[in-house]
Write a structure and sequence with these properties.
Layout: no helix or strand
């Protein structure tokens, strides 16, 4: 299975949205790093899944 990079997207603002077909598009996320190395880092994600009835 050959994976080809189609695009590189960075969601930076609250409410940024990316719609993909999960069955057709391979996707990945980058590592996250805290602004302050003494603090933890986190990423908020909301995933919605739709299926044809």
């Amino acid at each position: 299975n050959q994976k080809q990079l189609l695009d590189d997207v960075c969601l930076q603002q609250a409410g940024d949205l990316l719609l993909i077909n999960d069955q057709r598009i391979y996707h990945d996320v980058s590592n996250i790093y805290p602004k302050d190395a003494t603090q933890a880092a986190w990423r908020d994600v909301l995933v919605l899944t739709f299926h044809r009835l």
